[in-house]
Every structure is written in C-alpha cells, then in structure tokens.
Amino acid sequence: MPVKKLTRPKLTLMEKLYLPAVFKGLAITLKHAINSMRGKTPGAENFNGSGTGVTMQYPETRWDDHLPEYYRGTPALVTDEQGRERCVSCQLCEFICPPKAIAITPGEIESDDPWAKVEKRPQEFDIDMTRCIYCGMCEEVCPEQAIFLRKDYLVIGLDRKEMVHDKEKLYEIGGVREGLVNKWNELK
C-alpha cells in the first residue's frame, strides 16, 4: 500500500501571531454589539426578548412555538384508546439504547386475561433521563409504537432518583396514542 507523506503548510508571521483572526473576531463581536444596542438583532422579535439581543427570556418565554418538526425530546410510553399498554416487553429498545438508559423487567400476562395471547407486558420500565441522549433509536426500533419522543425539553428533578422515570411516570407523560397496535390485532 503506497504511503503518502503530508507536509504541514508553512505559516506566515501574521498567521503565527493569530492577529488577523483575533481582529476578525473582535469586528464580528463589535458588529453584533452595535446591532444589539440599536435593536436590530435578527430574531429578537420572535423570541420576545428584551430587545438587546436574541436571548430568550426564560421561563416567561419558551421554545414551544419555535421547536422544529424533527425535534426529539423526552421519551414516553403510550397506551391505546382503551387504556391498554402497547409495550410487549420485547426489550429491543433496551438493547439498542446507546447509553443503556432503559431498563425493562418483563412480566407475564395471566392466562385468564382476555389478552393473554400477547404473553408479556413490562412489569417495570425505567428510563434514566440523566443518561438518555434523545437519539430516538428506542422509538425507531419499537415494533408496537409503544415508545415515542415527545417535544418536551423540561426534564427536571432535585436528585438522581427523580430523574429516573418509572413506568407510571412514562405512561403519565405519554398519554394515549391512536392507531394500529399489532399486539391487539385479532388476526395476528
């Protein structure tokens, strides 16, 4: 295999001093400061800011109206229209989660239950929000569309224990989602 040896380009004296880059940065900063003082900062009106910049005045003003369609926020579990769990405890989301934020303990559905054909549902389902990176892989891999990422970005807690969302909390923030659920399909 041929090896190509690269040589580092020679820098001029001005490039070695970094002075052009420093002055260019100062000019950009000065330009933004002057525009801010004149109230002509782009986007200031949309963020309902103070008029001196594009800084959003949180919590009075929030990102809710400015979030793009592709925004991925807090993961949540959903039920169907009849309040049944969509999750079948296949654990695909747990296995594919890059930071290993999801922990599932599968549980069996009793044989006298009318939906015993499904066999499993989560006994415990925890998502550690301090580890979640909002990548959306859990949503992508779920065969029952039981987990999805909401547009919420406010995930708060006073300690690490509060940042672990258990099954009840995940269903509470997830709510109901309508549509075909494979596990409840009679023909399947």
Can you give me a brief rundown of this structure?
With 188 residues, this protein is of the alpha+beta class. Helix content is 22%, strand content 13%. The termini are far apart.
Q: What does the model show?
A:
- This protein is of the alpha+beta class.
- It is 22% helix and 13% strand.
- The protein folds into two domains: 13-62, no CATH class; 67-177, Alpha-Beta Plaits, CATH 3.30.70.3270.
- The chain has five helices and five strands, in the order ααβαββαββα.
- A three-stranded antiparallel sheet has the order 2-3-5.
- It is elongated.
- Keywords: 4Fe-4S, Cell membrane, Iron, Iron-sulfur, Membrane, Metal-binding, NAD, Quinone, Repeat, Translocase, Ubiquinone.
- It is found in: Cell membrane.
- Residues 75-107, 123-152 form the 4Fe-4S ferredoxin-type domain.
- Its EC number is 7.1.1.-.
Over all CA atoms, what is the radius of gyration? 26 Å
Q: Spatial order of the strands in the main sheet?
A: 2-3-5
Q: Which percent range describes the beta-strand content?
A: 5-15%
Quick one: CATH class of the largest domain? Alpha Beta
The CATH architecture of the largest domain would be 2-Layer Sandwich
Secondary-structure element order, N to C: HHEHEEHEEH
Computed structural class: alpha+beta
Proportion of residues in helical segments:
10-25%
**Number of H/I helices:** 5
The overall strand count is 5
Mean pLDDT: 84
